[in-house]
Every structure is written in C-alpha cells, then in structure tokens.
C-alpha cells in the first residue's frame, strides 16, 4: 500500500495534466498502448534524479588514489581512458569526473579522456548536455574555487564552462539494453541505480556492464549496493575496497607511485 501511495504521489501532476482520473485508468491506457508518449512521461515522473557534484566524495578520492594511478601506468602506451557514468541523471557525476582530470593538467597532458554519461531519461540527459544548474545545485559538493573556476554565472543560474562541457558527452541509454559505444570501458560508475531494480534485472545490468568493460577495468557501485549474491560476473577488489573487477581476471600487480 505504501508503494502505491508513493507512485500516486509521483504521478499526481501527470494525471492532472493529462486529465486521467486515476492510477488504474493510467495503467489501462499504458497496457492498451494508445498513447506511446505517455509511457515516457510516466518513466520521467517516477525516476529519482537526486544527485550532486562529487557525491559522497569518498568514491572520487578512491578513484584518484587507487584506480587512476594504476590505469595511468597500464595505459601509458595508448594514453587513453574511457569512463562510463551510468545513470548519470543531470550530469553532476560525469562533470565531477571531468574536473578530476582538468584540475591536474600536467599529469594528464597528452591523454585522451573519454567520459560518457548515460541515463534512461531524455529530460535529464538534455539538462546534462546543457550543463546548466541553479545556485543551489552548483553549490552542492563544490568548493567556492571550483565553482568559480568551472562554472560561469548566467541569467538562468550557473553553466559549466565550455572547455569542461567539451570533455563529456551524454546520451539516452537503458541499462537493460546493450552497452553504448565504444564499450570496453576502463571504469564504470553505476551508483545508486541498482537499488531500484529487482534481482533479475540487476543480473541483466551486471551482465551488460561486464561485457562493456576491459578485463582489467573497475566497476564502482553506490554505498548501499553490492555484487554479493547478485552476480558472478564481478568480485570485490581486495586492494581497493569499494571497487569491483570482473571475475576470472588476473590483474598485473602495479605498485602505485613506483
């Protein structure tokens, strides 16, 4: 009953807008397929797009301290990294990743860093591409120096500066479908997304992600998510708590800082 109440609350504005008298009537319309665009609107209304820059901070510190130094050595020949922010919402996570690299330009000079943000919601992907945020949104997770350096004030709030926007691309993507181009990602962040899926669909998502990763890549989940009991495609990385790697992969031992 509590879940139905939450659904009705989330869809109340849409029901009023479309003149649909009840949730049951909405379900009937969706099942009959009379209005295909309505299904997209329902998905948009039900999605939880809560996010902010450098959310929870510790995961980004973990990437900077553990994953990125190792990948920098392993990819020294190609000087290329591909990162996928899955379920990126309005883009703060993807832009946070871009800032990690942009704030250390000497270290990453000559590297090609491809950051892709995807989400099932067309509306939030449009917002992410625009890189436009309110005063409240741009202050969440950013220090004043980062805010001033990477965002410019506009009539509608604050917008990510063009050099930062240029380093990130966004597209609509359902995690239950095959992974986006180019695949073979070095790092995949899929944080606070699996919480909303049942166990069967979680298994599908883990398979999609595993197939899209390079053998020595890493997966990062949200604090309340795990691969334990969910999939056999991933296992916890014993040297980097909070990161997961594909099972059956022997990673080369690299001493960070060597």
Automatic annotation (TrEMBL):
Cross-referenced Gene3D superfamilies = Vaccinia Virus protein VP39
Q: Which CDD domains match?
A: AdoMet_MTases
Name the domain of life.
Bacteria
Where in the numbering of this chain does the CheR-type methyltransferase domain appear? 1-249
Q: Which SUPFAM superfamilies match?
A: S-adenosyl-L-methionine-dependent methyltransferases
UniProt xrefs under Pfam families: CheR (PF01739)
Q: What is this protein called?
A: Protein-glutamate O-methyltransferase CheR
Which species? Sphingomonas caseinilyticus
